[in-house]
Amino acid sequence: MMVHGCARRACLAVFAMAMAPQDPVEPPPGIEAPDAVAEGGHLVVQVNSGVKEIGLCVPGVGQWTVPVPKDGRVEWRLPPNVRGGHRIIVTDLDIPHPSSKTVDVVGSD
Amino acid sequence: MRPVLIVPCALFAAAAVVAQTDVVVPAAQAGAEGDSARMVEGLGHAGRQQILVHVSHLAPLAGRRLTALTFRRDHTADFTGLGGEIDLVVRVGAAGRTVTAPSRTFADNVVGAVEVFRGRVTLPAASPSAPASAVWTGDNAVRVQFTTPYAYAGGDLCVDLAGAPVGTAPIVWYPDAVSDATTGIVTVVGTACGPFANPSGQRTGVGPRGLVPGETARFTTWGTPGAFAILGLGGGLRSQPLDLALVGAPGCTLHVDPLITLVTVVSPPPFGPELGGLAQHRVPLPAQQSMLGVHLGAQWLELAGAALTASEALDCTVATQVPGLGIAVVSQLAGREVDVDLTRAPVLRLSAQ
């Protein structure tokens, strides 16, 4: 049965929404992060690979490119609009296939 | 009767011939934890790493045969080590390039390489008791005993490791490392216009530690998937930013008069459509004295159909001095690009007879 063009595009759009945000396929090699961080706290990411910057992405809020210090320890203060229930995606920004790990933000109350 | 002293002398002489010498690179870390951790591609993650060592670290080894190398586990990071087995190949040879200007082509960095080891190595799991730092034994270290010793005649050295984990279970094992403070400087100027700017009005970035002659600066921006992304690089920023309303982009400002423009296409969104896609250019910085302190301006323009938007600008200054570690790391994870690191290197112990 042929699907009308508009209905087909709507189906594809719904499918795309169901697939996003992408769950990480593998964590970034050489990058370690906790599974969860408290609202308003500091996220500590240990970068032991050669990357000089990582990406920290919060769907619905925004994304940041954060430089990696010489000791590899990235400490990122969660912005006030990153609240419990949000997810932080830590990525090595390695185009075309960036690796990532998801960190859950838990409420502080 | 004359005392017989020949046999004891012979015994002492024989003992001196087989005496082992251990040299830690750098020497200051022999008994002290380094200030960093750095993966060795091939140890825990499939890949290859070359460690180029300046001759100044190796004086006690001149004229000797290298018989083993050892890495020490890092104890400063907040994670638990997971051990495992790896298949490893180690080659040693004279360095084909200097430690301040290694090549991104592995074959260029080593001359007269000798395969000193090929086989299976066990990376020990972390002990559940309190970790002991700067210890070269037990589960704190992994030692690779060479099956073929390497005759070290002096000069800069290249240690070349290639390996992969056995099986699919994750291995988390990071060697202790030292770092150098050499870095460039990056200052954000202006704000991005269009979608995918974060709450601070930014959507691009480059790590200052990549702004070192001989390394690679990685300029990245977020943008509209499928759009053309143009990185403009110039010798600094415009004294008078240009309002792009003139070309149909109100609210957007051009801060750079580009001497070089690099074009790419924004990737599909890897982490959800609301975060946009990624565009990136890796810019290798020549390992030349003339690059020290060079001033660069960088800004991305995005062309999505007829819509033009611009990122914030980055005011970049290349490092003003050459890294002083005397160690260079050239590495590649399987399936990824080659990376050069002149400011962070694993602590390494070389054994010789």
Number of domains of chain B: 2
Over the alpha carbons, how many angstroms does the gyration radius of chain A reach? 17 Å
How would you classify the helix and strand content of chain A by structural class?
mainly beta
Q: First CA to last CA of chain A: what distance?
A: 54 Å
Which structural class do you get from the secondary structure elements of chain B?
mainly beta
CATH fold name of chain A? Immunoglobulin-like
Kindly report the average pLDDT value of chain A: 82
Assigned CATH class of chain A: Mainly Beta
The helical percent of chain B reads under 10%
Task: Please give the share of residues in helix of chain A.
Answer: 10-25%
CA distance, first residue to last residue of chain B = 39 Å
Number of helices of chain B: 1
The main sheet of chain B orders its strands as: 6-5-8-3-20-21
Oligomer: heterodimer
Largest sheet of chain A, if any? 5 strands, mixed
Compute the average pLDDT of chain B: 92
| Beta strand count of chain B | 23
Strand and helix layout:
The complex is a heterodimer of chains A (109) and B (353).
Chain A: H1 5-19, E1 31-32, E2 36-38, E3 42-47, E4 53-58, E5 62-67, E6 73-77, E7 87-91, E8 100-106
Parallel strand pairs in A: 2-8
Antiparallel strand pairs in A: 1-3, 3-6, 4-5, 4-7, 7-8
Chain B: H1 6-18, E1 21-25, E2 36-37, E3 47-53, E4 65-72, E5 84-95, E6 110-123, E7 141-151, E8 157-165, E9 176-179, E10 185-189, E11 204-205, E12 216-223, E13 228-234, E14 242-243, E15 253-254, E16 260-265, E17 277-284, E18 295-304, E19 307-317, E20 327-333, E21 339-341, E22 344-346, E23 348-352
Antiparallel strand pairs in B: 1-23, 2-9, 3-8, 3-20, 4-7, 4-23, 5-6, 5-8, 9-22, 10-19, 11-12, 12-17, 13-16, 13-18, 14-15, 18-19, 20-21
Give an overview of the whole structure.
The complex is a heterodimer of chains A (109) and B (353). With 109 residues, chain A is mostly beta strands. Chain A has a single domain (24-106), classed as Immunoglobulin-like. Chain A is built from one helix and eight strands; from the N terminus they run αββββββββ. The longest helix of chain A is centred in the N-terminal third of the chain and has 15 residues, at 5-19. Chain B is mainly β and 353 residues long. Chain B has two domains: 20-180 and 323-352, no CATH class; 185-317, S-adenosyl-L-methionine-dependent methyltransferases (Single Sheet). Helices cover 4% and strands 43% of the residues of chain B. Chain B contains one helix and 23 strands. In chain B, strands 6-5-8-3-20-21 form a six-stranded antiparallel β-sheet, with no helix packed on it. In chain B, strands 10-19-18-13-16 form a five-stranded antiparallel β-sheet, with no helix packed on it. Chain B has a four-stranded antiparallel β-sheet with strand order 1-23-4-7, with no helix packed on it. In chain B, a hairpin with a 2-residue loop joins strand 18 (295-304) and strand 19 (307-317). The mean pLDDT of chain B is 92. At the A-B interface, strand 4 and strand 5 of A face strand 2, strand 11, strand 12, strand 17 and strand 20 of B.
